């Protein structure tokens, strides 16, 4: 009888619904919501800016914005976790996983910004101290990181640590699933975008763009060192516009086995070496790699991006060019059998880059955005790049868009240093490396943004003196 009652109690508990904790309705702080949760709960965060530094505390919960509802991407930008006000100089990461969290610990639907990293010691090298993971720090944990904008996190080595790494994310001794994120404008001494340190990882369908640093060990977009029990998989990502002050503008590896498949690796820069640099067993196949890379199915051809979403034009050589074995096909359009569901294109064969494969759905623009894209293709670019002393910024605008257009130049910190109004029929501006008072600016990375009121595109340029 006792056994029957115990079994019945267990069954009843299993049927109880997981708790939904609403922020700020139930608690004003996301961290308090996490602390009050138990495994299987959902912490649902309303739009707003939350100045917090979060620790999952070993909770296998879903932390989500209202993106949960119909995958509405507008909530990603509307729900911001800003880690810039930490009072603990040793823990400045925006989000920390360090208590054996599993894949059931999920964070989705946020802008994660303002982080500065967490101090940690590698058990293999206890004499060394590191500072890592500006946006997200993962230590002996394997969470799921999906549908986030991880941006403008800066891991700066101000205390003479042995290294400052992983501006966007760092994972050590785990096997996280990292998919459908935009990882952009992060900075670190090495691995400005993502660091995989003696860890497994599944990195799929991410935009890894415009991250910069690499002064110490290299790696603008992705830095990988060592290995763990699980493999490192880098699949269907677009790795573009990253920069390293040493080598490996896109990917730097060190004694690491990597499987890289169906990626677009383009437009990355470095001071020396190649955009893919380092040692270890790296298998790159069915990828579009600027400058080429030895491997089955690799191509060296301009991917022909349409816009800031890095969508592919209809004649892109990356369409249907990826590896299309079982589990890699593009999603099929239910209304057009045999053809891919937009934003994948062509047939259901895998498209290289972030819009290929079964996880493509995150970045699909809204119908309004698509109409804007197709109504006016700005084609914003500059040449030469890098440059000294001048560069020509070119664009295409139809008359109605040129009416209120402005071109603005920003430094790496986001400060506006120069702005130009655009006149009708104007198609270029020459920038001479000066700010608004005509003073010369120093060498470095700058961004230029063309805004028409309805369309905005931003690009990166490098001034070298």
Could you explain how this protein is built, in words?
The protein is built from 5 helices and 42 strands. The N and C termini lie far apart (84 Å). It folds into 2 domains: 18-300, Pectate Lyase C-like (3 Solenoid), CATH 2.160.20.10; 376-463, Immunoglobulin-like. The strands form 7 sheets. Strands 1-2-5-8-13-18-22-26-30-34 form a 10-stranded parallel beta sheet. It is mostly beta strands and 465 residues long. It is globular and about 60 Å long. Helices cover 8% and strands 34% of the residues.
Task: Please specify the SSE layout and strand pairing.
Layout (H helix, E strand, L loop, with lengths): L1 H14 L4 E4 L6 H6 L6 E4 L2 E4 L2 E2 L6 E4 L8 H5 E4 L12 E3 L8 E3 L2 E3 L4 E3 L9 E3 L3 E4 L4 E3 L2 E3 L2 E2 L7 E3 L3 E4 L4 E3 L2 E3 L2 E4 L3 E4 L3 E4 L2 E3 L2 E7 L3 E4 L6 E4 L2 E3 L2 E2 L6 E4 L3 E4 L2 E3 L2 E2 L5 E3 L3 E4 L2 E2 L77 H9 L5 E3 L7 E4 L4 H4 L3 E6 L4 E6 L6 E4 L12 E8 L4 E8 L2
Parallel strand pairs: 1-2, 2-5, 3-6, 4-7, 5-8, 6-9, 7-12, 8-13, 9-14, 11-16, 12-17, 13-18, 14-19, 15-20, 17-21, 18-22, 19-23, 20-24, 21-25, 22-26, 23-27, 24-28, 25-29, 26-30, 27-31, 28-32, 29-33, 30-34, 31-35
Antiparallel strand pairs: 10-11, 36-37, 37-40, 38-39, 38-41, 41-42
């Amino acid at each position: 009888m006792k056994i029957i009652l115990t079994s019945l109690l267990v069954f009843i508990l299993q049927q109880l619904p997981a708790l939904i904790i609403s922020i700020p309705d139930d608690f004003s702080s996301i961290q308090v919501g996490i602390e009050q949760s138990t495994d299987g709960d959902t912490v649902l965060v309303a739009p707003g800016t939350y100045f917090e530094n979060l620790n999952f505390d070993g909770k296998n919960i879903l932390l989500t914005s209202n993106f949960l509802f119909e995958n509405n991407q507008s909530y990603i930008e509307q729900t911001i976790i800003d880690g810039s006000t930490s009072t603990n100089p040793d823990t400045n990461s925006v989000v920390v996983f360090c208590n054996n969290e599993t894949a059931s610990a999920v964070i989705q639907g946020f802008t994660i910004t303002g982080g500065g990293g967490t101090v940690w010691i590698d058990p293999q090298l206890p004499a060394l101290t590191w500072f890592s993971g500006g946006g997200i720090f993962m230590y002996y944990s394997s969470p799921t990181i999906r549908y986030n904008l991880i941006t403008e996190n800066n891991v700066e080595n101000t205390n003479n640590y042995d290294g400052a790494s992983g501006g966007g994310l760092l994972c050590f001794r785990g096997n996280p699933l990292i998919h459908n994120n935009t990882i952009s404008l992060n900075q670190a001494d090495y691995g400005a975008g993502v660091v995989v340190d003696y860890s497994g990882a599944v990195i799929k369908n991410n935009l890894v763009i415009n991250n910069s640093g690499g002064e110490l060990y290299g790696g603008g977009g992705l830095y990988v060192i060592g290995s763990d029990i699980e493999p490192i998989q880098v699949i269907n990502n677009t790795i573009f516009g990253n920069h390293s002050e040493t080598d490996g503008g896109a990917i730097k590896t060190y004694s690491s086995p990597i499987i890289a498949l169906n990626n677009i690796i383009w437009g990355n820069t470095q001071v020396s070496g190649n955009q893919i640099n380092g040692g270890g067993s790296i298998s790159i196949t069915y990828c579009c790699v600027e400058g080429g890379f030895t491997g089955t199915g690799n191509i060296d051809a301009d991917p022909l991006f349409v816009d800031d979403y890095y969508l592919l034009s209809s004649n892109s050589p990356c369409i249907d060019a990826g590896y299309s074995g079982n589990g890699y096909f593009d999603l099929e359009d239910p209304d057009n059998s045999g053809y891919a569901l937009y934003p994948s294109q062509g047939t259901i064969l895998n498209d290289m880059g972030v819009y290929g494969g079964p996880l493509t759905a995150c970045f699909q623009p809204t119908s309004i955005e698509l109409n804007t894209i197709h109504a006016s293709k700005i084609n914003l670019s500059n040449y030469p790049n890098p440059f000294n002393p001048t560069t020509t910024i070119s664009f295409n605008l139809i008359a109605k868009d040129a009416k209120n257009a402005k071109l603005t130049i920003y430094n790496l910190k986001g400060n506006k240093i120069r702005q130009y109004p655009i006149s009708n029929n104007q198609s270029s501006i020459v920038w001479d490396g000066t700010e608004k008072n005509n003073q010369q600016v120093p060498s470095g990375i700058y961004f230029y943004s063309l805004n028409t009121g309805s369309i905005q595109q931003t690009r990166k340029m490098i001034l070298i003196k």
